Amino acid sequence: MKRKSGGFDRAAAPPQGRKAPPSTPLTVRKALSILDALATEREGIGLTSLANRLSLNKSTVYRLLSALRDYGLVEQISPNGRYRLGLKLIYLASQVLAGLEIREVAHSYLIALRDQTRESVRLGVIDRGDVVYVDYAEGPEKIRLHTYPGTRAPIHASSIGKAMLAFLPWDEVERLIAEHGLPRLTTNTICDLETLRTHLDQVRAQGYAVNDEESTLMVRSVGAPIFNAQGRPIAGIGVSGPAFRMTPERLQSIVPSLKDAAAKLSAQFGYVVQHGAPDAQEAERNGQPSSSGAATSA
Q1: Domains in the chain, start-ordered, CATH in brackets?
Q2: 64 and 54 in contact (C-beta within 8 Å)?
């Protein structure tokens, strides 16, 4: 039998040049049409010309441009001059490309780790307080976990999520928790901020996180972070299975292969350990004291 984990699908904006569907709110459709028009004007375009091209009221276009400019999606070349696409779009595009690239690069590592452990292996990234699983290698056992790409899991109750949180600046972790909370999913879920902080200190010291039936009863997993060239966690890789097979001893036996795969993937994205283990580097970067030795994960 398979155990399926569910998640919510969230609609994405239509690709450039494609009209938004009729169900899209009118204001959003107008804003998207402005971005599409600006994408064809490398030198920028004036307000009047833009309004005429889109057959929209000049005041409406100005109001939407101002809102888009506030979010960095549009910039004005001079106070009374032309408008063009903003640099924030480069950042957004880079995040999309990074997600696509990491899936392509990581897939062979997922397969190899699946073959080594005979358990299901997942690749996840952080998105709006959740871990989103972007790739998956299903284990061969009859009783196994199954995950569809796009499935979401609360970041605080996922081994991949906790592995990534442990290497983010604490103020960023606090902001994520303030926005999304620490909902209880099982009796083992960590729902207190200070308890979570202590737990993440342990995760950072050992370089991996364990999900001990914190999101789903009778399921355990172990996850490790993948770093980019700047030492920031951009994804995580995890091995999951039924709790009767994924005993504490079995989890520990998987950790070396898991960390090795995560380290090799980090190297693919330019991460270089210069002063010892990644946990020491990340702790120093985040202004947090680095811990030594392995700690037991709850």
Answers
A1: 26-86 (1.10.10.10), 94-285 (3.30.450.40)
A2: no
Cβ atoms within 10 A of the Cβ of 128, count? 11
Distance CA 298, CA 294 (A): 13
Q: What is the pLDDT of residues 63-122, one digit of tens each?
A: 999 999 999 999 998 766 899 999 888 778 767 766 668 888 999 999 999 999 999 999
As given in the structure block, the two tokens for residue 98 are 């990074």
pTM: 0.64
Task: List Cβ neighbours of 223 (8 Å cut-off, separation of 6 or more).
Answer: 124, 158, 159, 160, 161, 162, 163, 208, 209, 211, 236, 237, 238, 239, 258
- Per the rule left: phi > 0, alpha: psi between -120 and 50, beta: everything else, 287 is left
Give the residue from 258, 174, 169, 242 showing the smallest Cα distance to 208: 258
Helix (H) or strand (E) holding 165: helix 159-165
| Radius of gyration of the CA atoms of the chain, in A | 22
Q: What is the pLDDT of residues 17-29, one digit of tens each?
A: 445 455 668 999 9
Task: Give the span between the Cα atoms of 219 and 215, in whole angstroms.
Answer: 8
Q: Tell me the torsion sign for CA atoms 164, 169, 172, 176.
A: positive
